[in-house]
Amino acid sequence: MSRPSSFSLRGRKALVAIRDERDSTIVRRQFERLGIEGVAWTPADPVGFAPDLSLIDDEFLPLLQPAQRAVLARSPVIALLGTETPSRLKLVFELDPASFLIKPLRSAGIYAALVMAFERSERTGELKQQILKLEQRLRSRRVVLAAVLQVMHSHALAEPAAFALIRRTAMEQRKSIEELSAEITARGMLPRATG
After folding, report:
1. How would you write the pLDDT of the chain (195 residues) with one tens digit per residue?
2. Residue 15: beta bridge partners?
3. For the sheet containing 77-81, what is the strand order?
4. Helix crossing, 21-34 with 110-155: angle to 10°?
């Protein structure tokens, strides 16, 4: 299934925590134009849905409840900044915002902030997946090394030849090198080819 485009916002649902009524009206009007359903929220209220996006006014910070932070961690966050003091920015950084808007809000810039938030969130998710895969492969390198050493000793081969044998056998058996190496270390020898 393909992911929705970051530029297409119609049908999305946003959690909106804005204190100032003027700013809230501007966001509500822009959301109506873009086809986004905005749900007003204050940090004291429970969240009864999974938002696609959260707009959080810096006046509501810090969010002290773990449940509040957990809700916001599941979707991109756009921070609304009223003051640019170091202490306020530190609180905003704890949200890990994907984008931000400066108060008082204007209708210009909201669409760009939304698109940037969705795109950054998607790219960050892809990078996290790549990191997980690389960490898994790094952990499995120990198993591959152990298998290469076992094949070197059992077949009296040099390291490059032992690795080439493992790679060739893995390709013939349609397995990854890591899977075959785990079998070799468990059995103490190369598994027989099937078929």
Report:
1. 456 666 778 899 999 999 999 999 999 999 999 999 999 988 888 888 889 999 999 988 887 778 788 878 889 999 999 988 998 899 899 889 999 999 999 989 999 999 999 999 999 999 999 999 999 888 889 999 999 999 999 999 999 999 999 999 999 999 999 999 999 999 988 877 554
2. 39, 54
3. 37-40, 13-17, 53-57, 77-81, 99-102
4. 70
CA 88 to chain centre: 25
How far apart, in whole angstroms, are the C-alpha atoms of residue 38 and residue 42? Answer: 13
Distance CA 24, CA 5 (A): 26
Helices (H), the chain: 21-34, 66-73, 86-93, 110-155, 159-172, 177-187
Q: What's the rounded Cα separation, in Å, for the pair 150 and 152?
A: 5
Question: Could you tell me which residues are beta bridge partners of residue 19?
Answer: none
DSSP structural state of residue 109 = T
CA atoms of 190 and 184, how far apart (whole Å)? 5
Provide the whole-model pTM.
0.72
